Amino acid sequence: MQLAYSRVMKNRGAPGVDGMRGENLKAWLQENWAHTKKALLEGRYRPQAVRRVDIPKPQGGVRTLGVPTVVDRLIQQALHQALQPIFEPTFSDSSYGFRPGRSAQQAVSKAAGFIRAGKHWVVDMDLEKFFDRVNHDVLMARVARQVKDTKVLHLIRRYLQAGMMADGVETVREQGTPQGGPLSPLLSNILLTDLDRELEGRNLSFCRYADDCNIYVGSQRAGQRIMDSVRAFLTERLKLTVNAAKSAVARPWERKFLGYSTTLRDKKVRIAKSSIERLRDTVRKICAQGRGRALPDTIERLNPILRGWMNYFSLTQSRRPIEELDAWIRRRLRCVVWRQWKRPRTREAQMRRHGLDALRAWRSSVNGRGPWWNAGAKHMVAALPPKYFTSLGLVSLVSIHQHLQCSA
Predict the structure, then answer these.
(1) Strand order in the sheet with 164-166
(2) Inter-CA distances, 327 with 306, 397, 399, Å
(3) Are residues 392 and 295 in contact, defined by beta-carbon separation less than 8 angstroms?
(4) Residue 133: what are its φ and ψ, rounded to 5°?
(5) Alpha-carbon Rg of the chain, whole angstroms?
(6) How far apart are the first and last CA of the chain?
């Protein structure tokens, strides 16, 4: 419980339906833990409802999170710590999500290896609202294979059945294990291990990260056959539904896996176009909010996002897209600066201050073009070259990628 407490405090997290924050947990436990512990040991403990939070998805729609109270997060974390060592040895080597010592990058590397080995068709399966549609009876039957303690089983089921509260109204949950608590990721792997074993029994090449599963085959015909049979297995055995609109048998370079894709010609790992566009959207939003801020403040907001994004996509073998992104980000920042200068007289003075001669500065300031055009024009690139943004602390995606490649 002490280890669970330290991990909950380290992860922080939003308050649940009771409004209690992590910093208030210690005082609450000092007063209430003896009673709570007794209820847990006697099998009487009942979790509180989870707070519903809807997060917009990049492709549209929403992802529903269920945020437990901080006390229930503590108990779930303790359960996770006890259950993970029991179930981890039973998981597949081709499963990478929510497991210690495993990552999305490892799954992408494994998938790229299948493609380079000649498996140029992928069965890309998307499970429809997986975390919202998990069948409780099917899941608990899988948990009970390894866990015999009935009080623990009852406690897990109560967490699955805890109500969901939104706008003060609590609804009963008869299916699903909403994301948001420490236990849901482990339960998802317990359920989907049956899928892993089915694919291994057929000697198929696959990678699974949580509910994102790609199977790599040598022909479209084989892929379609596998798609049909695996869909039937998921429906009949696990009571899960494949989203037909988002699933397909296709070429790997036409699909994305965990934000990555591959190049057509030489089968190199690259960043999927949709992942690049999402970063662009984020940069646009921050730059739009930066028109009234000093440029270093906007750069300070951008840097953690750029570092995190490039760290995740460190596997990319295509340098040109990140070079283009670096140039595009600088152009976005020049656009912010051009708008901040506002009047032609100010623009002329600023460009002269940044090294342009008087005539060029004057002509550029009155050219009548818009901010985006000027941000990419030679006069602004000359006034605010890449080294200017480097001097203000802007990180370079190319430099981060080079550093990561050298470290690897």
Answers:
(1) 62-67, 50-56, 164-166, 169-171
(2) 13, 10, 13
(3) yes
(4) -115, 5
(5) 26
(6) 37
From 175, 176, 213, 220, select the one nearest 194 (Cα to Cα): 213
> In this structure, what is the dihedral angle of CA atoms 199, 202, 204, 210, given to the nearest 10 degrees?
0
Phi-psi region of 259 (alpha: psi -120 to 50; beta: other; left: phi over 0): left
Residue 175, Cβ density class (10 Å: 0-12 exposed, 13-18 middle, ≥19 buried): middle
Element (H, E) at 207: strand 205-209
Strand spans (E) along 110-163: 121-126
- Summarised one tens digit per residue, pLDDT across range 88-122 is 999 999 999 999 999 999 999 999 999 999 999 99
Sequence-separated (6 or more) residues with CB below 8 Å from residue 206: 94, 196, 199, 213, 214, 215, 216
pLDDT of residue 176: 87
Environment class of 353 (CB within 10 Å of its CB; exposed 0-12, middle 13-18, buried 19+): exposed
Q: From start to end of 6-141, where are the E strands?
A: 50-56, 62-67, 121-126
Extract the tokens encoding 195. 């899928």
> Over the range 138-151, which residues count as b (16 or more CB within 10 Å of their CB) and which as e?
ebbebbeeebeeee
Q: Say if CB 133 and CB 175 are below 8 A apart.
A: yes
Amino acid making up residue 351? M
pLDDT exceeds cutoff 70 at 188: yes
C-alpha separations of 102 from 94, 107, 114, 204, 232 in Å: 10, 8, 18, 21, 29
CA distance 154 to 159: 9
| H, E, C per residue of 25-56 | HHHHHHHHHHHHHHHHHCCCCCCCCEEEEEEE
Look up residue 255 and give its DSSP letter. Answer: S
Residue 60 above 70 pLDDT?
no
* Sign (positive or negative) of CA dihedral 298, 258, 241, 52: negative
Q: Specify the pairing of strand 50-56 against strand 62-67.
A: antiparallel
Closest CA to 283 of 339, 338, 327: 327
Distance CA 346, CA 372 (A): 18
